[in-house]
Amino acid sequence: MKNTLSSSARIPMPARYGINLALTVLLWGALVLMMAGGVISNYWQGIMVTVGINVILAVSLNIATGYLGQLPLGHAGFMAVGAYAGGLFMKATPLASLISSGDTAATVPWIILALLISGLVAAVFGLIIGIPALRLKGDYLAILTLGFGEIIRVVITNIDSVLGFKFTYGAAGLKQIPKISNFTLVFLCVALTCLIIHMVMKSRHGRAILSIRENEIAAESCGINITYYKVMAFALSAFFAGIAGCLYAGYLGSLFPSTFKFMKSIEILVMVVLGGMGSMLGSVLAATVLTVVSELLRSLGDLRMVFYSLILVVMMIFRPKGLLGTYDFSVSRILEKCINMFKSKSSTGQEANAESEGGESK
Fold it and tell me: How far apart are the first and last CA of the chain?
């Protein structure tokens, strides 16, 4: 009998990306048609935008927690930096007048610039915080990053009194930010975020980050620059958190420092832990479920955090690795299995026919 494993089908990498692109476009088109047809109401459209922002936050934090194996608790601080950087930039541009005039094409360059500036400013803060913070591990790293996140919030609240003029508008909030975030923009940002993180983690840089998570001493003995890759992962995580912050500012149109308290960081961490640290699909599913459930329980106020706590307790008891652990879903891998199963059955059938024909001729 022939060895079917030697002839197993492999889908080329360009074809894999083409399949994923086609499925992403089909999903976007289906959702847009459902919105246009009134199947998805305006209320749920807003929730879907919030889901997309939380997905970016969860997936970006997963770089530092799931892939790198660290425990930072200052993700809300990076989100705040990106939100205020993007909000201030958008207020200084003609975006508001362009949006009111309906000139959508002219807003695209300004929106791209706002997103990039937000991400880069947050990444710079990630570098500033990451270089000293990542010398620590475990609880010490968590406490230090939590402190940095709170420092960022306090600075945003009180910087106007230091500067002597209105900049972030302190506790009163930064208002009249042009509302740029819609479903299509957030969906595109989610898709690009997942694609970029996936490509980074499949590269040699991603394998180096994963090796640090598995065994830091062994990785360093193999010549991997531990400090470089830790800071790189931390800055990349902060970059996407800044983009999420910009989308958040462009969705609400106003920002308040109280939004970015340490409980926001805990909320994002819960999404990552619930989905499975190291699983991108798990972060996406957990961010979606928790955002929708949180919206449905909005009438309970702060009691929603009790729900989060119960979920974490139950999850740690029955599923310590999260919903999906480190598993990542791949459409191409499923297609390869189906093709190989079909080839195996067809080759088995041909061999059986050949043996029966040989017996009849004898």
Answer: 20
